[in-house]
Specification:
By secondary structure, the protein is mainly α. About 65% of the residues lie in helices and about 0% in strands. The chain has helices at about 5-10, 15-30, 45-64.
């Protein structure tokens, strides 16, 4: 998962203001984890963004 993928998932559920905040948060987290890799060799931030995507989907499913 990357920033664009997360924002694609989120834009189905959130306002432009909320998407802007999410984008800023992803930029901040990505900068703080710059250069960190998982054991697999992929960038560390991939996993937190994937989890965030799942949480967005689950949260909206539970509301329905």
């Amino acid at each position: 998962m990357d920033k664009d993928g997360l924002l694609q998932v989120a834009k189905q559920h959130y306002s432009q203001t909320q998407l802007g905040r999410l984008s800023d948060a992803v930029d901040y987290a990505s900068a703080k984890h710059e250069g960190q890799l998982r054991k697999s060799g992929e960038p560390y931030i991939v996993h937190p963004l994937s989890v965030a995507s799942s949480i967005i989907e689950w949260a909206w499913i539970s509301i329905l």
